Amino acid sequence: MFSVPDQASDLPRHIAIIMDGNGRWARRRLLPRLEGHRQGAKAVRKAVEYCRRRGIAMLTLYAFSTENWQRPKSEVSGLMELLSQYLESELDELHSHDIKLMTIGDLGSLPHGLKARIEAAIDKTRDNSSMILNIALSYGGRRDIVNAAVKLSRALKSGALAESEVTEEMFAGCLATAGLPDPDLLIRTGGELRISNFLLWQCAYSELYFTPTLWPDFDESAMDQAVQAYRSRQRRFGKTSEQVEAGQGAI
Ligand code: FPP
């Protein structure tokens, strides 16, 4: 089981980000798409620094979806190379800041060298406890739910579990994010208003924040605006605002 650090209660404990707009950032400058992704990796560094500095316990980044395999081969291999370079250049820094690296998604589908590098990085940062950086790689929310359903159906079939014992918590425990808190805040940059198969189950009650800012331009002050927007909202989890104000909130 993972443990997530404590933190100030009005800050999101877990921020998840759909980092969109790298391609458009590059196109506007007449640069190749990969240059947009390169600048995107710099924005990743800023987002991690922001979270670590503010004491946000967990950051999940949607770096590569199951659907992204359909992109041109050169872009896919460029992205894989970039992820590998990111780990090479950032791992010591992440480790020295006590940040634990995790991934969700199908690591088995990644190039062997990248997979090995990720596994070594996960291993190195295993005992770090100030923050979790979770990278979604070859991840799809529907696939995650199907995998969980298969796990549960095996337990039902074998008789280890009865239908009446199946709970939402148990289902969540079969997802890639088992043991981790759901995102409090889901940010999508790049102006599109959709979730694109990201953390479908886990975002049931996340606060959504959409911004036209392209991911490479999403700096610490943009991140801070998103966090301030989150802090100004009332999370009701199906209750009335009167109930929440009377201290019967679901948090
Ligand atoms: C979406 O923008 C972005 C991606 C599919 C890749 C995200 C990858 C990075 C930010 C690079 C490195 C990541 C890490 C974790 C180091 P898009 O290409 O769809 O942009 P567009 O909609 O403008 O074309």
Bound small molecules, by name, code or SMILES, are: farnesyl diphosphate
Largest sheet: 6 strands, parallel
Order of helices and strands: EHHEHEHEHHEEHH
- Overall radius of gyration: 19 Å
Low-confidence stretches: none
Can you offer a commentary on this structure?
There is one protein chain. By secondary structure, this protein is α/β, with parallel strands linked by helices. It has a single domain, classed as Decaprenyl diphosphate synthase-like (Undecaprenyl pyrophosphate synthetase), CATH 3.40.1180. 43% of the residues lie in helices and 14% in strands. It contains eight helices and six strands, in the order E-H-H-E-H-E-H-E-H-H-E-E-H-H. It has helices at 22-28, 33-54, 73-96, 112-124, 141-158, 168-172, 220-231, 241-248; strands spanning 14-18, 58-65, 99-104, 131-139, 185-188, 207-210. It has a six-stranded parallel β-sheet with strand order 3-4-2-1-5-6, with helices on both faces. Strand 3 (99-104), helix 4 (112-124) and strand 4 (131-139) form a beta-alpha-beta unit. The protein starts with 13 loop residues before the first strand and ends with a helix. The model has no long low-confidence stretch (mean pLDDT 95). The protein binds farnesyl diphosphate. Farnesyl diphosphate is lined by residues 19-24, 37, 40-41, 44, 61, 63, 68, 79, 82-83, 86, 135, 190, 215.
